[in-house]
Amino acid sequence: MKKKNCQKRLFVFCFLLVIGVIQVFGQEKEIPLKEKKVSIVCNNVSFREVIRILIENYDVQIGFEESTLDYENVDYDFNIYLESTSKIRKSKDQLAFKNIKKTKTTFSLNLKEAKLEEILNLIVDKMPNYGWEINDEVVNFVPINGRNLKFDKLLSTKITNYLLKEGEPVDLIRWELYLQPEFRRVTSELELPYSNFRFDRISIGLKGDTNYSLSFKNLSLKKLLNEIAKVKKGGWILKKSKFKGKEYLDIQI
Fold this sequence. Notes:
Layout: H1 2-26, E1 37-46, H2 47-58, E2 62-65, H3 92-95, H4 97-100, E3 106-115, H5 116-125, E4 130-135, E5 138-143, H6 149-156, E6 158-164, H7 172-178, H8 181-189, E7 214-220, H9 221-232, E8 235-243, E9 246-252
Parallel strand pairs: 2-5, 2-8
Antiparallel strand pairs: 1-3, 4-5, 6-7, 8-9
């Protein structure tokens, strides 16, 4: 009887051991974002096109903080939306965007199955005022020259409670941010006026509703922008824009 119990226990032990080994080896090792394999073959294309490839083909989300040395430089504008995650209809302005603003900085890349970090290094080689870093699994382009200290303080501001319900108009993603009391306080202190007007031509005429909800608590503004980008897909841009002779804070999200 004791022999049978021992055999039974041994069988159970071996069975559990085998299951454990299968689970361990069956799990795919998570690859760090910077090591993600990416292929890009292009010749004299804009930053906008390179970023489009990363976002649409490889699910890489992008955040961009403008350098003061690039104020009014359109070379680093890009489409912050991915249509597959929201019911957005393109307007004629959006379809014509590529031809509206010519860029001076172009990129020629010929990389197949390269690590993302290799591609990012080649990109910033053509962008003298920027470096790149990965925060919250989002690629952030950050100024290494001409850092706007007001932007730095703004991005570190903690937002207590950001909420956007599913089905809300997509443009409310940004407006909901502007309604946050912490955002209003710090922009007032820093003298950074903002407007609900869309300065970026690519998002003028955006229509449609979100098919996702956004709910975040006690995050810095930078982390909040990164987290929103991961849900909606695409990216965000922080810059200054001019309208009728007046400068405004411009957050594209």
